[in-house]
Design brief:
Strand order of the largest sheet: 2-3-11-4-10-9
Number of helices: 6
Largest sheet: 6 strands, mixed, barrel
Distance between the termini: 34 Å
Shape: globular
CATH architecture of the largest domain: Beta Barrel
Number of domains: 2
Number of strands: 29
CATH class of the largest domain: Mainly Beta
Strand content: 35-45%
């Protein structure tokens, strides 16, 4: 139960770090939900129903992208709805520093931002594009560099000057192509030298005009997490607030480093499992407990018990996706416990919906991960999709199983890539 699966990186990307100002060798940033009034993506003309429907469509797109990269012949019927992802981070790149607004993505490794000169950039009206000649610490990387070798399937080619080219794909239409480079990254006042990133010179127009690019928080060697390892020691955590209110100035938080270890009697941990791609945070879901009914995890293609690493934890996916056979058993037990008559989702996206649902009717639900049980809040399990109609935020999929961000809200979720575990602690995040 407590056996940890050790992750061996294929190589180490060397990053020279200045001494951080945080006394506990860590630092904190904001995770701004894209539908928050604090977000540059916030559209005041959208109704709450519009925002919710868009979030669900993005969730389908994100699941499609993650499944496709993991090798599934995805059956998810989802049009690409802009670039997926739900949370935005602010960082700065270069000397002098230039602000970058990126989608924080635990399903990506390489951080990239739009750069001048631009062969084909989408219109960016938020922060300025990065200008290579304006940063005294910018350096393009050669095709022989270790970082270029770490790109693996995201490597494109060498240009005539032997500069390593990357290509990131986000579904059928979204992409970024450019030079692999390194520069100084700033998290608040703290500089980190020689961080590898993508300088995007060809980025298609499915990305939002207020966004600079992607901030990669995955588990691979080119992610921010592994590049800053000598300071943060492979540790980061986040705490997602429950809801976004029009007048609220609360944001979710992301913490990096040893100073934010999750501890206490209510903490449970589960081992991370090494699988392809190394970007994803795989864990093992053994069963789901609905009241007193324990449902063993099943997949139609697995006949040898519970497969290891059968679900990933992803902060950029709104919904939770479970294999169809297991989902059917789960919803059968759940709806039996709730009772009453179900109604259709007005948007036709979610399966299990009720009118005027009182959450005290929802039986207790616990996800039993290997090594620890995580009890789910009914508030996170059911969303009001329109006035008076609430739907279950867990959906079926025959592709990659995903533990989405709605079920993670009001919970400190901590990742430890050195000891290869994920920890959960119930927390009031809007503090």
């Amino acid at each position: 139960m407590n056996t940890l699966i050790l992750l061996t990186l294929s190589l180490t990307i060397s990053v020279s770090l200045s001494k951080p100002i945080h006394p506990d060798n860590g630092f904190t940033g904001d995770l701004i939900h894209r539908d928050s009034p604090l977000s540059p993506l916030y559209n005041p003309t959208y109704s709450p129903t519009d925002r919710l429907q868009n979030a669900l469509l993005r969730s389908m797109s994100q699941a499609f992208r993650l499944s496709k990269r993991a090798g599934f012949a995805s059956k998810i019927d989802a049009d690409i709805f802009g670039v997926p992802g739900e949370y935005i981070m602010k960082i700065q790149i270069g000397t002098p520093p230039v602000q970058v607004l990126g989608i924080a993505d635990t399903g990506s490794d390489l951080t990239w931002a739009q750069c001048e000169p631009c062969k084909n950039c989408y219109k960016q009206v938020g922060p300025p594009l990065l200008v290579l000649t304006s940063s005294s610490t910018y350096q393009a990387l050669s095709c022989q560099s270790k970082a270029c070798q770490a790109l693996s399937d995201n490597a494109l080619s060498c240009d005539s000057k032997n500069i390593c080219q990357y290509k990131m794909l986000y579904g059928d239409r979204s992409y970024s192509i450019g030079d692999l480079a390194r520069d100084t990254f700033w998290f608040g006042p703290t500089p980190f030298k020689n961080v590898v990133f993508g300088c995007g010179h060809d980025n298609n127009d499915t990305f939002n005009e207020n966004i600079s690019g992607i901030i990669g928080l995955g588990g691979g060697p080119l992610s921010i997490i592994n590049q800053l390892n000598s300071v943060i020691r492979g540790k980061f955590s986040y705490c997602l607030i429950t809801q976004i209110n029009e007048g609220s100035n609360h944001t979710s938080k992301i913490h990096f480093g040893d100073g934010f270890n999750i501890s206490g009697p209510n903490v449970v941990s589960t081992p991370l499992v090494k699988k392809y791609p190394s970007t994803y945070y795989y864990v093992t879901l053994e069963s789901v407990l609905v009241e007193n009914n324990n449902l063993s995890y099943k997949q139609s293609f697995s006949k040898d018990g519970v497969p290891e690493g059968n679900i990933i934890i992803d902060s950029g996916t709104t919904l939770t996706f479970l294999p169809g056979e297991f989902y059917s058993d789960f919803t059968s037990s759940l709806t039996k416990g709730i009772g009453g008559k179900m109604v259709k989702d007005p948007q036709g996206i979610l399966d299990v919906c009720y009118r005027d649902l009182h959450l005290d009717r929802v039986p207790s639900v616990t996800f039993r991960f290997r090594g620890g049980d995580v009890e789910l809040s009914p508030v996170n399990m059911f969303l009001e999709v329109e006035e008076g109609v609430s739907c279950l935020t867990i959906v079926p999929s025959e592709d990659l199983a995903i533990f989405g961000n709605l079920l993670q809200r009001n919970m400190m979720v901590g990742f430890d890539l050195v000891n290869q575990k994920v920890s959960f602690k119930p927390t009031v995040c809007a503090m």
